Structures
1.
Amino acid sequence: MKEAYIADLKPGTSVTTTFLVRTKERKTARNGSAYLDLEFQDNTGTIKGKLWDCDSAQLNFEADDVVRVTAGVEVYQGNPQLSLRKIAKCREADVDLADFLPHSTQNPDELFKGLLKRIQQMSQGPLQSLLLHIFDDPVVARKYRQAPAAMSYHHAFIGGLIEHVSSLVGLGDRVCDHYPFLDRELILAGLLLHDLGKIEELNFTRGFSYSTRGLLVGHISMGVEMVRDKMREVPDFPPELWNRLQHIILAHHGRLEFGSPKEPMFMEALVVSYLDDIDSKLEAMLEQYAADKDRPGDFTARSRPLGRELLKPPSEPAPAPAAAPAKPGTLKF
Amino acid sequence: MKEAYIADLKPGTSVTTTFLVRTKERKTARNGSAYLDLEFQDNTGTIKGKLWDCDSAQLNFEADDVVRVTAGVEVYQGNPQLSLRKIAKCREADVDLADFLPHSTQNPDELFKGLLKRIQQMSQGPLQSLLLHIFDDPVVARKYRQAPAAMSYHHAFIGGLIEHVSSLVGLGDRVCDHYPFLDRELILAGLLLHDLGKIEELNFTRGFSYSTRGLLVGHISMGVEMVRDKMREVPDFPPELWNRLQHIILAHHGRLEFGSPKEPMFMEALVVSYLDDIDSKLEAMLEQYAADKDRPGDFTARSRPLGRELLKPPSEPAPAPAAAPAKPGTLKF
Amino acid sequence: MKEAYIADLKPGTSVTTTFLVRTKERKTARNGSAYLDLEFQDNTGTIKGKLWDCDSAQLNFEADDVVRVTAGVEVYQGNPQLSLRKIAKCREADVDLADFLPHSTQNPDELFKGLLKRIQQMSQGPLQSLLLHIFDDPVVARKYRQAPAAMSYHHAFIGGLIEHVSSLVGLGDRVCDHYPFLDRELILAGLLLHDLGKIEELNFTRGFSYSTRGLLVGHISMGVEMVRDKMREVPDFPPELWNRLQHIILAHHGRLEFGSPKEPMFMEALVVSYLDDIDSKLEAMLEQYAADKDRPGDFTARSRPLGRELLKPPSEPAPAPAAAPAKPGTLKF
Amino acid sequence: MKEAYIADLKPGTSVTTTFLVRTKERKTARNGSAYLDLEFQDNTGTIKGKLWDCDSAQLNFEADDVVRVTAGVEVYQGNPQLSLRKIAKCREADVDLADFLPHSTQNPDELFKGLLKRIQQMSQGPLQSLLLHIFDDPVVARKYRQAPAAMSYHHAFIGGLIEHVSSLVGLGDRVCDHYPFLDRELILAGLLLHDLGKIEELNFTRGFSYSTRGLLVGHISMGVEMVRDKMREVPDFPPELWNRLQHIILAHHGRLEFGSPKEPMFMEALVVSYLDDIDSKLEAMLEQYAADKDRPGDFTARSRPLGRELLKPPSEPAPAPAAAPAKPGTLKF
Amino acid sequence: MKEAYIADLKPGTSVTTTFLVRTKERKTARNGSAYLDLEFQDNTGTIKGKLWDCDSAQLNFEADDVVRVTAGVEVYQGNPQLSLRKIAKCREADVDLADFLPHSTQNPDELFKGLLKRIQQMSQGPLQSLLLHIFDDPVVARKYRQAPAAMSYHHAFIGGLIEHVSSLVGLGDRVCDHYPFLDRELILAGLLLHDLGKIEELNFTRGFSYSTRGLLVGHISMGVEMVRDKMREVPDFPPELWNRLQHIILAHHGRLEFGSPKEPMFMEALVVSYLDDIDSKLEAMLEQYAADKDRPGDFTARSRPLGRELLKPPSEPAPAPAAAPAKPGTLKF
Amino acid sequence: MKEAYIADLKPGTSVTTTFLVRTKERKTARNGSAYLDLEFQDNTGTIKGKLWDCDSAQLNFEADDVVRVTAGVEVYQGNPQLSLRKIAKCREADVDLADFLPHSTQNPDELFKGLLKRIQQMSQGPLQSLLLHIFDDPVVARKYRQAPAAMSYHHAFIGGLIEHVSSLVGLGDRVCDHYPFLDRELILAGLLLHDLGKIEELNFTRGFSYSTRGLLVGHISMGVEMVRDKMREVPDFPPELWNRLQHIILAHHGRLEFGSPKEPMFMEALVVSYLDDIDSKLEAMLEQYAADKDRPGDFTARSRPLGRELLKPPSEPAPAPAAAPAKPGTLKF
């Protein structure tokens, strides 16, 4: 178990604990000796550190490794910084990555069970078969629980994808209750599968980045491929249904200039695209509020996904917006 | 009571009934005599007509009047057309405009009662007071039940505004059930008031058109004025709340280029803007499906509000989309 | 064999020959009798026609059928028009569709042989294997020779796709001769496959239209699927190569707003996108010049793909541009 | 009276004088002791300062306060910086804010008198009554003389709004002399009122910032409200005239994407929008010239409002452009 | 002298007079005989005409010729139309083109004298020399008085260019009176020369069209060339001044997307661009008002240059806008 | 001859050699003494330097001078830096600017000979005469060999223009071999002349910058002027040919928003514009690959001209892309 977290370090103390190495750079000091300029991360934040005279040390770690360090906590230019005395790579077996990456406050396993349950409630037929095929695949089942929903704009944390999709599935059912002419099961399938490609577009085992294939192909086309491969294992999947489902995935960014090669051409495709947008933007707003909760004034800093400052919720104990901190699934980072 | 409707006229027969005059133009025939080129309307469609030798007749009507006609039904260039024998203005008292304008299939009075009931269920406080003030105003109460929601893109029929808002209120409650951190009553107020200015922006007693003030000022600014006048009659309406409510109305088109002078800066403003967009676009799609229900092929003609052809719902008796024709509130026109 | 072509009909004569029916509409004449309003097509143009008193005739044809007609050639509003005396559907077996659709002036079979030969000249390896797999597929081989390259903007005729690709392959080799650092075989594969999806996106057996799947999914995503299915039959196709090839197809429209979900991220993808654009635009210009060759003045009408009027080539017998009419592959339509 | 100004401080000297505190931040030095990192402002510029060992001092000021300091003037990284020995808040009564904020070189009181005089020269009628009502309001009269015309792009100094409007009124009269068909008094009213909302949109008593209501609602809608409230106090203000005047204010940014909910629909609205644009851009250019007057070369740095570098006026003593420094109303900052 | 004008023709009468032939097309009537379908123009409007049995007549005219006709005035589809009995080309010497093209209500010769006088009032120096050189050129002097200012958007009539420039010169002097820091003579030169290229970009001797060189090169680049040729004849024209003047001409459309290859980079270039825009738009509005003066309602039809409907001036005898019909220089067409 | 190059300096050594001074700034150290903060450049890179106590030295150089220095090579913040002991301006006669500016790896004189030879192979006629006139001009001949092709996006090195044009000429011939209907000599002339204005738009004797006239007028209009002046010296140059050639130069940026005042209106103009774009973008990609060759990962940093990250060529010894480093004409910088 991890002994100490970055958010809790006090200047003037010493600490021995584990961190994920974000960056590692060898530099030369004025006196000509070499030192390491490092940045560490755990699920509470980041901190810089220096290892002086590094060439005299036996070093066995690289960026993205988890290391155990002993260090003094100092202050440099007003910010805490570590002066390292010992640093060594941890054994993989001893590492729980959940300690080092920001992650959902909700339990991904529970969310996944919830999605499976919802699929089982569907009417029997090709859509249900397809979804069961996909979510029973052990690789999908594992990655779907871990993947973030985006690199940075919203739900950028372990479990972000499943948290986003779980919210969408609940929202989609309510919207279909309201509009009885919508094909509920097609919308459900669209919501469950629209971002499936994210589990391969992004790397998320040691920090978040795009995979090479992710940058070249993108999660929309990758997701279509993954679903299509499973679809072909479902006997007699109706071609018209496949056309519709594929279109929903292709069109879910809503506009060509957002990377969808087709724009929504029927009601269910339109609804999936809008709900995805609402849920992402609301989460981005909540994350901005959390980041700026100590910032003075009525507005947050400029939200990059929204492109503008946000008015903060009223601080008086109003019944409804007071629930904001209790929102399911904000990140702990 | 109106004896016959345009949709039912048979070529080769005679008819005596009432119509609304859409256009009236005096032209000169080849033989030098004058005739009237006319277009008529009732709530089932439109038809052209000609009154030959019109200068010999005593005529007492203008465009936008309701007239009683006796005419033969002929065919001209493949379309039915009236050859008029008698035409005279009806007395206002004998006219039920509902016979001549397309209108909602839902009962506006019932919808209005529903909105009032929903307002009464709100917690007591300034928002409820404001809404009661507005909806108790007899002019608002009358016009809000009649106004279309738009000139042509969606809900362009008598009762369209209240049908659109009633749908939004139901949808908004469901969305707030899903996102407990939203301020439900602020969203409710925003949905009820976002298009209030439409009741003055549009003329809708004899066909639909923009009012002069509507074209110069627009329903967004007009609605803000109307709400503000009522707000000032509510004692101690909190200024912060007014800022939020005014922002929701100003921002409900979502983007500057769609005529909103501000873009949504907090969660409730964003949600009102998105829900308005979804409900309008779904209605526009339903109207396109209805218009093109006899068009061969899998796609409709290009939908002007969407900017593309729409894939029609599957024709097989699938459980969910089969409900499309049963959708509450499609237009009869 | 077809006895007469539309381009050759003379007013005041009679004709008996075959046409493709483009549209067929039943209308009512002033005297109350029904007539058919028809439009016919062959590979030299289109002509309208009327069959009076149609209800008294035994009719067994629909739009898209090929019919044998006997008719008088008249003039209506300055244009030739057929007054039909006999009209009956032809047997499929008697129809050569090449008589009724505009088609390339080049021989698609020869062009196809040329492409195969070029593939055989490639170095042995996964790209060559993949291309052979695809072009040996009898369905592909047949449709690739027939498909137009676009609905209307350029090469909109039978054989247009293979004419466009054959030009691109020749051009690509020359450009790779010039830039030795380009991966010639990757560019070759990209050019051969970039529009493969067109053979399913478009219907082209009886006039040109989008298929339902074509409108919903588009030739870019469809082509990727088709290539991927074949790729998986090639043993050990390198994943990095697949990433590159897939990216070239996805990115060949060059910009998101033109429907590519990714923009070119390496040199070969950029080159394929540019060459496709050049060849399409030059062909569109040639077609505009052909269409407006009798139009007075120095400029053509506004070219829709270019968005502007075009300066015509100089009419003096200049050596180079004089070749324009001799250009390989203009349409006969 | 203020003893010394930032622009005149000499490294190596000591100073005792007053400044406005722009920012104040407590930091920890390497040796663990706390210090204050400060930035000061007066109407000649800004300077940074440090108060070492700040926890041992009695401090009674915050950002936006005016303080009296005793400090040594040093140089840090090539820039002057204050090393504080004493710092204490001034009494409000002793503070003349004009010493601490950049302000117009013109006398706002004189400019205001000029505007009043111009209003009195108007023909008697509803427009004159409305303007007198507004400019006689003591709150408006005070704020209108102080407000800047914008946050940063042009006239961003105390008195900037009235300087901008005074210039516009003079310009408007000349343009109406030229185009006799323009309604001069409507243009005059539009120019005087188009930016009225700025006096509430911006905070300008201690530095310039947007008010909360300003960011949520914007000066266009706020100005319309303020004018409307006064308009309703003018007996029998003609509704058609109000429509026109309101439209001028709403449309004065000229285009939807610049935040106007309507674009100019008649001549006077068009003229107000253009004149506002010209005067703002010319002022922004003059300010850029002033800021870059010591920059070598023929061009200024990139002007943010214009989006490009500006060619400087010729340096030879040409008669006309030599007047540039003598321009009425440049800022002293 | 022309005996009758199109605007005055009465159905049922005969007429003998002269017209400009706009279009001439030979068609075949139902009975197989040939007829001419013609359109005529004079400076009061246009009218269609038919010459039956045309092959039996000796015809010596083409489109763009002026002809003398004898015809009956009839009505066809509600519009007057000529049934021609005689038609023959006029001798060039007998033709005054002013009778056949719409033209300014102002006297171009007087306007030209005014411009010359203004140039003579300039201070002696290179700018004045350049302007005298240009306006003394007899070809320029002739064409500058005839050219329209645009093909269709504003001032599209004979004398339109000089009317537009004369207005701009007056406006520019007033604006320079207001902003003393502007270089008045540079602005004056810019206004006089910005559209000089129009005299070669447009053909305007027999109707308005683009010249071939005009479409390929455009009036901006053509005007720069024309001015530069004259500039080189002025001894010692300062290169810096030429840079500025050339930039003003290049930048006068204000934005790249409007065809200016550079955007205004100093004050005089900005002012020329804005004044040109104001004067053009106001004239376009006046022309729209004139065209729609009999249209019912408060708004005009959609103005193409403005992209929206325009609110008409109030009809009450208000002092200022009542001047609108008295505006100098509206077209008689 | 230059003794040492920046790319080869080793920390901890001393050096005596020559550099170009990029920037020179006098600053005050904490101890009150003055020092010079300098940046140097040669054709292998840049390095910063400091001259302490500079007021005690005799200094005779400015920015853009070439100086001889004696200095110690130190490390500051991880980067090498010079601590100067001696610095003095070199005599112009001793300076070979090629040592100090990045330049083509190809020989500009050889490239120029190649262009001349290609011109001599053209058919005799006005185009050849014009080209010979231009390239025989000694000023053009000198500057055309030196100019970079752009400020920073591609070919931003001495000899960049001629390298870019030489590549284009070769490419153009190949493309004309492929499309026989193109006017090869017009394309050749267009490629040779499209960027002629660059030799005056840019300063490139001491670092690269825009000339004053370059920023105000731009290389497109400047090039047209230069070509036109020469064209007028060619007897009987056909006006239609001049229209076409001028249009090619004006339109070579392809779109109005890229600064072309006209968009390509015939085939040769379109081809010149596309080929210019391809060659520039490929070169920009090669330069990005060179700059990022040591960057880990599959992608480069974001390429500014392309607006996105680039996938690097595969590192395996593949035959074709391995040629990338051998590409003719990469920069040495």
Note: The first strand of chain E starts at residue 14 and ends at 28.
2.
Amino acid sequence: MPDEARIGMISWAHVHAEFRARAISEIPGARIVAISDDDETRGQRAADRWQVQDFTTDWTSLLKREDVDIVMVHSENARHAEQVIAAARAGKHVFCEKPIATTPADAQRMVEAVRAAGTDGTAAFVSRFSKEASQVKSVVGSGVLGDILLTRSLIGLAGIAEIGCPPEMAAWMSDPALGGGGAWIDEGSHGIDLLRWLAGDIAEITAFTTNRAKPGLDGEDVAVASIRYVTGALGEIATTWSMSADIGMRNWLEIYGTTGTVLMRATDPQPRVEVYRSDQPELWRGWTTPDIAPQSTEPHDYTSWPPHIHHYKREVASYLNRYFTGRRPFGPTLEDGLACLTVIDAGYRAAAAGTRQLIPIPRRSP
Amino acid sequence: MPDEARIGMISWAHVHAEFRARAISEIPGARIVAISDDDETRGQRAADRWQVQDFTTDWTSLLKREDVDIVMVHSENARHAEQVIAAARAGKHVFCEKPIATTPADAQRMVEAVRAAGTDGTAAFVSRFSKEASQVKSVVGSGVLGDILLTRSLIGLAGIAEIGCPPEMAAWMSDPALGGGGAWIDEGSHGIDLLRWLAGDIAEITAFTTNRAKPGLDGEDVAVASIRYVTGALGEIATTWSMSADIGMRNWLEIYGTTGTVLMRATDPQPRVEVYRSDQPELWRGWTTPDIAPQSTEPHDYTSWPPHIHHYKREVASYLNRYFTGRRPFGPTLEDGLACLTVIDAGYRAAAAGTRQLIPIPRRSP
Amino acid sequence: MPDEARIGMISWAHVHAEFRARAISEIPGARIVAISDDDETRGQRAADRWQVQDFTTDWTSLLKREDVDIVMVHSENARHAEQVIAAARAGKHVFCEKPIATTPADAQRMVEAVRAAGTDGTAAFVSRFSKEASQVKSVVGSGVLGDILLTRSLIGLAGIAEIGCPPEMAAWMSDPALGGGGAWIDEGSHGIDLLRWLAGDIAEITAFTTNRAKPGLDGEDVAVASIRYVTGALGEIATTWSMSADIGMRNWLEIYGTTGTVLMRATDPQPRVEVYRSDQPELWRGWTTPDIAPQSTEPHDYTSWPPHIHHYKREVASYLNRYFTGRRPFGPTLEDGLACLTVIDAGYRAAAAGTRQLIPIPRRSP
Amino acid sequence: MPDEARIGMISWAHVHAEFRARAISEIPGARIVAISDDDETRGQRAADRWQVQDFTTDWTSLLKREDVDIVMVHSENARHAEQVIAAARAGKHVFCEKPIATTPADAQRMVEAVRAAGTDGTAAFVSRFSKEASQVKSVVGSGVLGDILLTRSLIGLAGIAEIGCPPEMAAWMSDPALGGGGAWIDEGSHGIDLLRWLAGDIAEITAFTTNRAKPGLDGEDVAVASIRYVTGALGEIATTWSMSADIGMRNWLEIYGTTGTVLMRATDPQPRVEVYRSDQPELWRGWTTPDIAPQSTEPHDYTSWPPHIHHYKREVASYLNRYFTGRRPFGPTLEDGLACLTVIDAGYRAAAAGTRQLIPIPRRSP
């Protein structure tokens, strides 16, 4: 098993590169050995900030290095495919920001390339790693909810620029050719991946998209979708880039089961999970808000991150822990990324066509 | 202007008849003069309880009485049309439990009959009368939300029998021929009427329905819909008759605007409205939970009803107040009932066909 | 066992007479047979409202009636003693508004008179009968809190007049000669009785009182006390008649035990009880808010009262149920009233003297 | 004005040394130049962790260094006085963990020594620096509360060892000779300083202390006090080291004014401030929970600390900012530390004597 993780970072186009660089800097054995960015100023500054000697504007040179084990890709969404495929062909493990691509076809090629290379391909579905989402996963796993009937999800924020992301990031995310769409692909990716992880695969979708309040945006700032899961359960997903409710992301999730209900508010000023169990004696029957942060296993833990971004640290820590101990996959897979993108794409097609779209089951290798 | 309101009650098939009888008993000038019910035992008991002398199993005889000003209809949904139309033709004002019918065609005939008679036709959309919904209406009216972008609505309960309704009521509501469907028509009617009232007319809908946990029910116990308003805003509606989260109805509503957000939890153990206004100075910017009950104008008010049903009292009080003071209409109209049912019907058709349904604009008289 | 409860009501000086009259009117077998009030207008109106034929301004005549089983006393606090003692001597059961007197000496004489008569003497500690307080009692009884370490209690309201009580009631309550003091005796009585009921007898007290914002009041509008229980646990009590926080009473209670904690907010717009149990598995450890209203045993209960006053109905219902079934005592006893008043009196003495007061144990008959 | 802050750290006996070392490491211009600790292993490890070259077991040698501008003292409480006085005499600014001493006499000598030296003496009242406390300070300063009537404060935790502090820290804090007492001096110091800062000086106190659940502790694990402010307002303070309610500190504060109320829950899994203002129009009157974290001025701020300890970073950042810009004092002063300790001491005397203690006004220099 490896005793070090030597990471090459491609692009700082997405600010999540910064969060992950910080996480890497706090994990023993891991280090960034090289950074590339076609924005030389931006990339060089990141290299300075994280004390990385090797900076280049040529991402392909980074793949040629023998001292790179893992490539992390934070470029514009439309450029992921080319870079991930090349990295896999160079024998690297790849860690790719979500959405992993802007089309299912690209995502399919990425999956195939990584599969052929035999390396690990991880999709950066960071929302799974919030403490709140982990708690919900445990609640679902405990069985107290019974069969799932209905899910509701809201993922929204005030806008990419509005929450403090750099202007050039807001610019490319507002360009469907680079970002792949608007709020639906960006926020919806979080929502759909969480729902798939917690409630299972999605079989059918209908959707509406619109742009109500972002004149400078070519894509949608509001989208809603209704879904049917393979299990037969139903669900709803709402996303927006024009939310007027404090700052930061609202990631709300509700799962209604035959014998219990769970509500989640992650990345919230007062993050919480609430659970209703009908199997309790009458005296105790009601809503419980389990302790989440700080957990009893980390009292007075001054090394963790603030709650609205702690999941980045937990994600990278989990990824590298699996890398070091050799447990494959190292995280949510590119197959998950493809499956998510397939739902996103079906949502766009449903919104355009006005007809329910069946979700194609991703081809699997034999 | 009338100084008394003499009311004939047709049927106790729906327990809301009992709530409204109680409300009538507390309002000066109003009284039930006659009750009809084809279930003689049930009707006679109601007559005894409310000290009404005249009971009959023949509802048509009630329409012939000169001492009846208002007819309130609480029969099985499928029977509303016949009774309301006959009551209108007899020159009576009619107050009809929601959904006002089981088909838009029936509802259209009801609207036309009342219009022809020149009497008042009220649809009993009681959810508008919760204090929480009134508060939300005022918040929307204040303009602080800006343009509405997105709405989310959840209306659910554990089931008709599960919340304590009589078995024979649960039975007819579970029969689509009498009730018109399942959770979607029953709970969705509340949700859609509130959304129309607060956010405007609905132009398009997609939906899914299913039966996940009510084997004895012919209709759906879960439904989800996505909508586009005439304004271009988007929305979602979820309904269920299989909720596992305490008892009673959960009526949750969220309205996201360009400059503010409002969340409502009505008919809840801890009912509340929360408002986010972005126009506040930084020190005060945040979520506000306005005082609702008891209001400052009714301190120590021991005459009001418990919060999970107080809206029935407020609805009947408002209705009779308008009746006594001659302000037409006396409440939400049968046209509202028709418009709501048109959306419900479009939702069922969308769920069956898998295609987005345009909502027909109800024909209006010249 | 009696099949009817014939009640004589002495005085409408306190508005709780009205709540209890309403409760009596809803309970089969119970009725008010006579009302006395030295305010003839006020008393006659009450008699009209509740359809009581016999009204008198002479309360002593009421005690002479053979058709009176129970006397309920709602006169000014300083007059309770005379009336309760006379009623007991007339062989009546007595139900006396809290505080049962304005001095422990009066209270002691009341206890002795009732004991001598062999009738039931009930102190109207209505706060025990809120659903929230009942829930807390059950939580304490379950043992999950372990040994009690600490209690905190806040009872406050905006002022007697401010919450809508009649001016003449506000007037006598503001007169220490009639009311016995200010916020401490009035609100503190609720707090202390709840604490005694839930956490045990009080051994020592220190206190401060002041008048900060009620110029027209001779007594205190704010009081704080620290206490030591007989068990050794400690506690705090704060009371105010000058609260600026919506309307109505705030009755907040916290009990900290070695293995759990319970928080109560009764008579609140969002009433609730929250419980922390350290004996739960990690996944479920956290705060639970048990369902309280509507309870599962009373779904769609349209006969109960609004939450901020429902405890009056529950109190009278419990009292009469015990009366009818012969279970003595019928409610919290005059001994409880004496014990509570002894703590109140010790608090006033502690505030005046600046020294800790031991609470005398009430003399008990052999 | 200085362009660097060279810090000498005396002792890691208190874990807050670690939090402050981390904060220093994140602030440009500041660095720890030397560490002393009589526990050589503990001190050397800290020096290694924070890459400080100079470690000594002799704290006096640290004071002789010319390259030390500021001395931070985190030794056992009883040792603060000797070290702070020596540091002041050596011409150093001193930053001293709270409580600044174990007796008012010691604290008085510390104040005098620093005054004579003309350096800055800061008491580490970190609780003032939580975002929630800052918000409450702004709310009080805005005047919306009117005159303060009543305050309530609860500061508690499960125990020093229970929340994860090192055993040797728990040991000395449990020894009154070294720690100065138990929960009252340790937790009460936070509470009293916050109250003095927010509501003014305290004139009188009564108190009870006990040990209910910590057999190994010589001091108290529960204390309650009632206070009168110089303004005439009243208050209560409860503290415990035996709380059973999740983990970590509960710092709850309530301030009731004539025209408004504010409630604070700091260092809580769901930290929040709630404000009630009676000056709002009826539609908006209610409880507001202002946004606190993340603030709008720090969107996506991945440099801040988790909320249960972020106040340490904010405290040190504020202190050093004032140091660099020459604004004296650099933080809460040793005079504040003395005043707080005087109240703590009066509380212990009140608990022992059973009589109300007047708080002596600290002597001030001419």
Note: The radius of gyration of chain A is 20 Å.
